[in-house]
Specification:
Strand order of the largest sheet: 3-6-2-1-9-11-12-10
Distance between the termini: 33 Å
Radius of gyration: 24 Å
Number of strands: 19
CATH superfamily of the largest domain: Acetylglutamate kinase-like
CATH class of the largest domain: Alpha Beta
Largest sheet: 8 strands, mixed
Structural class: alpha/beta
CATH topology of the largest domain: Carbamate kinase
Shape: globular
Oligomer: single chain
Length: 474
């Protein structure tokens, strides 16, 4: 699991346990019967952006008697251009040598949380301004970035616990991580030790604790991962991932305004779409729930009557029409790096050497189309430009290519659907659809799972390709 990793000292000992900031004032005493498998809810930042949206989230939880755990993000954007909590906190950390700028940013953070707290009588005992002053003092003393940037989730969870009357449980009490990996068995032991399954709780998402006692943040959007971890540890019946759209859409609505909700899909299909640009659910969040065979329902907090999208095992999905397409995903801004060398097909480990060079410079390779005397390495364009000189030097020293050239920017479009497997003519249908719009394809590949086809097209044709494929295939 890819995680942001900073070697940070755990600073829980610096927090005064008897401080009013950290007292547990929950009055919840009810327990869930052993025979009843619980539900776990995760609310993203868009569902927690202001008191009105939080009330909608609260209503969803209160309407479900099986809800045992609520995992929360920090507040999100209220409108286009508005800043999310984590964006503000990252800016604060970046301005470490500019105290005046930090003070302005902290004022914004405090104002947003004060607005949220003021919307609920239950939070009257929680002084959000005092909380953030205290967090700023800790950061000034210890410079622990991961600790500070995750306080948005921590503060939101404190507020939500008070509003719901649930127990507050810090993620550091049971989520265990090490070297970028989730430690399931250690996390299970900690969850049992703190009796996580006994009373309803609110847990901050986005972080955990390493075995060495370091607070460690996940990638952006990592609260999805926290929710999935909680569902696995609690052996949940269902994991509800609540957001601001009516489930997983069959295309990016910013590009395809008439994109529709997918009613049911497999973990494999969502994994393909999430890894290729669909942003509703973090791709890493699927691993714990898939391993535990826990179905996921993506629902809209603002439209709770909508059925949303059910994500489950492939064998639990009704048979689809052979060859049918489920959805599209894509991203642009990639560069093809073309490495040519006569006889490379006879050179042992040539490809391994090339991929190692890119990995050593922190670049993830999206695709590697090849021919007898050339390979094309497709990578994120901005990331490549930052290390282009070093990669060129390493390739020249270790691979001795005849030439290294860079093609025009590409977009990668992924067509997904398990029903494509073992059905002829799907690729032809895709290519014909694009050809009818005069969109040429630079690369095309189908993975071993045969549930997706990835196309490389000119960057400037990306939006037109998405619209054409959606109109022609879905």
């Amino acid at each position: 699991m890819a995680l942001l990793y900073f070697r940070l000292f755990h600073i829980a000992f610096t927090i005064k346990k008897n401080s009013i900031l950290f007292q547990n004032t929950s009055t919840a005493t009810c327990s869930i019967p052993d025979a009843m498998k619980p539900h776990v809810y995760k609310f993203g930042g868009s569902s927690l952006a202001n008191p009105e949206r939080i009330r909608e989230a609260i209503q969803m939880v209160r309407c479900d008697p099986k809800c045992l755990s609520v995992v929360v993000s920090a507040f999100g954007a209220r409108f286009k251009g508005d800043l999310k909590a984590t964006d503000l906190l990252l800016r604060y950390v970046a301005k470490i040598e500019q105290p005046r700028q930090q003070a302005k940013i902290l004022t914004q953070v405090k104002a947003r949380f004060a607005e949220i707290a003021a919307g609920f009588e239950e939070t009257a005992s929680f002084d959000t301004n005092r909380y953030w002053d205290h967090m700023a003092k800790i950061f000034a003393a210890n410079k622990h970035a991961d600790f500070f940037i995750t306080r948005g989730e921590h503060c939101m969870a404190r507020l939500m616990a008070l509003i719901l009357g649930f127990r507050f449980v810090d993620a550091t009490e049971f989520i265990r991580l090490e070297r970028g990996c989730y430690l399931l068995e250690q996390s299970k032991r900690q969850a049992k030790k703190i009796r996580l399954a006994e009373t309803p709780s609110v847990v901050p998402g986005f972080y955990g604790l390493t075995l060495g006692g370091f607070v460690q943040a996940f990638q952006r959007g990592g609260s999805d991962i926290s929710g999935a971890m909680g569902a696995e540890l609690l052996e949940a019946e269902t994991y509800f991932n609540c957001t601001d759209v009516n489930g997983v859409l069959d295309a990016n609505p910013d590009l395809v305004p008439n994109a529709q909700t997918i009613p049911i899909m497999s973990f494999d299909e969502l994994g393909e779409m999430a890894s290729r640009g669909a942003s509703v659910v973090h791709s890493y969040a699927l691993r714990p729930v898939r391993r535990a065979r826990i179905p996921v329902i993506v629902r809209n907090t603002r439209n709770p009557e909508h059925q949303g999208t059910l994500i489950t095992r492939r064998e639990d999905i009704p048979t689809r029409i052979p060859g049918s397409i489920l959805g599209l995903a894509g991203r642009n801004g990639f560069l093809p790096i073309i490495i040519s060398k006569d006889g490379m097909d006879e050179e042992v480990a040539f490809l391994a050497t090339v991929t190692r060079i890119f990995a050593d410079h922190g670049l993830n390779i999206e695709h590697i189309p090849d021919s007898r005397n050339a390979i094309t390495v497709i990578v994120n364009g901005k990331a490549f430009r930052r290390v282009e000189k070093a990669i060129r030097n390493d390739l020249a020293k270790k691979c001795h290519p005849d030439s290294i050239s860079i093609g025009n920017e590409l977009a990668l479009v992924c067509v997904v659907g398990a029903a494509m497997r073992e059905h002829s003519g799907v690729a032809a249908q895709i290519l014909n659809t694009l050809a009818s719009e005069r969109i040429s394809v630079s690369t095309i590949s189908q993975g071993g799972s045969e549930i997706s086809i990835v196309l490389g097209i000119s960057n400037d044709k990306y939006e037109a390709a998405m619209r054409a494929l959606h109109a022609g295939l879905l």
